[in-house]
Structures are given as structure tokens and as C-alpha cells.
Structure prediction request, 59 residues.
Amino acid sequence: MTWWTGSAPVEQRRSRDEVVTAVKRALDEAGLEIPFPYRTLTFKEPLPLSRAEEDAGEG
Prediction:
């Protein structure tokens, strides 16, 4: 994506903010989501779980 902006750093930051906001608003209004990477970990055997407070008292 490209667009025109002023050459001063403040103009570039302001312009980028406006463009990102407009794109996000348009995606939201269209009902589109940017996918977030999900990772599912599976283990052959169950893992034992413990609370951090219990672990801190042992030692």
C-alpha cells in the first residue's frame, strides 16, 4: 500500500496513523479480521500441573 505524504517526520507519522486507522475501520465494517497465528501443542502423555504459589513454598 502506498500514499503521498509530506516529508517532515511529523507529517509521515500523522499520515501513517490516518491510513492505518482508515484501513482498520474499513476491515471492521466489512466484517473482516486479520488472522492471528494460533499454535496448538499436543503431548503424548498428560502433563502434571501445579500452582506457582505451591511451587514457591517448596524449596
Observations:
- The radius of gyration is 23 Å.
- The mean pLDDT is 86.
- Helices lie at 9-29, 52-57.
- Residues 27 and 35 are 12 Å apart (CA to CA).
